[in-house]
Amino acid sequence: MVSLDNPETLPVSLDDIKQAHQRIKNAIIRTPTLYSRTLSDLIGAGVWLKFENFQFTAAYKERGALNKLLSLDKVARERGVIAASAGNHAQGLAYHGNRLDIPVTIVMPVHTPTVKVEQTRGHGANIVLYGEQFDESLAHALELAEKDNLTFVHPFNDPAIIAGQGTVALEMLEDAPAIDTLVVPVGGGGLISGCAVVAKNADRPLDVIGAEAELYPSMYDYIKGKNLPCGGDTLAEGIAVQVPGQLTRRFVEALVDDILLVSESNIEHALSLIVQIEKTIVEGAGAAGLGALLSHPERFQGRQVGIIFSGGNIDTRLLANVLLRDLARSGRLARLRVRMKDQAGQLYKVARVFHDQQANIVEISYQRIFTTLPAKGLCADIECETRDQAHLRHLIDALREAGYGVTLIEPA
């Protein structure tokens, strides 16, 4: 990676991050950095976890927002600040603005989920719903900042924000000095910029690896000189950024060793593993670091890797879908389409096969009309629980040996 910046010319230094930590440390949670024996065994590397989902607003964004607010002079504090955000930046800014008696206005797209709007409003922010897309909300926020003489607080393209986010790595390395590689979620680039400053100024400089959603490879494209498409419905909406920051790109060019793309299936699998193994809830962006390890295990063999659970704000219904889909991929939950005759006693006979194979039937639905089977034919979609892929294969083989046509309905 060719750097256009010497680290000494970047507008955030290690001293800036240390000063930011002194500024904010009494008003944020010093979240734990813990070693995961189970994930370490799974990956073949030492895995250390930073639980930023334990912050009051459940995300690291509080750090940068608070550092920015504390850097304002008295006049700017009295006038207030404004931001465009539908996520963690909005809540972090609103929460600490309310604490410090600084008026906060947040511009959100009109279709922002009500729960996010109300959570942000609950922290005392003035909410303006404007625009179908985030870019429209951002443009309107900049107009209001100019019109009402408010300080615009960018979510990542600001030295004070970057310095605040860098305090995550400062704490990690104090608590787990064995770490030799940091894997950091990348969206706009504020978190990885601050963390990279800390990592490259350590007693023994660490490798810094970005984890970016495969559907939104904006920083990857910029750094690698690629032109991969950028867009789509990603589970990691917190890092779904189409254009990385002008400022943060300089940090990434100068300090970051590599950026890895993470598929949606690996983000989902990582999130599910975190819930099952670490018994904690993260959002899609917060699972991207572990997703990178799952996507590229050979890259981390034998290393001591620090991963940041950057946030834990995820819709409960979406979380349930992710967990169930992962059960389906692992073979522990399956839907089988079983073809049988439309005669009395057929379901009983099929159910006996499930009983003999010790597979639990969860749900059954019939299809007689929308099928290519003969008029006297019947399809039954049977959702069932099995122990694993091997158990599922034995069940399918047993059904076929009993004379039934069986199709496994594959998860996405």
UniProtKB/TrEMBL annotation:
Pfam families on file: PALP
GO biological process: isoleucine biosynthetic process; L-serine catabolic process; L-threonine catabolic process
InterPro entries in the cross-refs: ACT_dom (IPR002912), ACT_ThrD-II-like (IPR044561), Ser/Thr_Dehydratase (IPR050147), Thr_deHydtase_catblc (IPR005789), TrpB-like_PALP (IPR001926), TrpB-like_PALP_sf (IPR036052)
ACT domain location: 335-412
Signal peptide bounds: none
Catalysis performed (reactions): L-serine = pyruvate + NH4(+)
A molecular function GO annotation: L-serine ammonia-lyase activity
Cofactor(s) listed: pyridoxal 5'-phosphate
Source superkingdom: Bacteria
Keywords: Lyase, Pyridoxal phosphate
Similarity remark: Belongs to the serine/threonine dehydratase family.
Name recorded for this polypeptide: Threonine dehydratase
Protein's organism: Zymomonas mobilis subsp. mobilis (strain ATCC 31821 / ZM4 / CP4)
Taxonomic lineage of the native organism: Bacteria, Pseudomonadati, Pseudomonadota, Alphaproteobacteria, Sphingomonadales
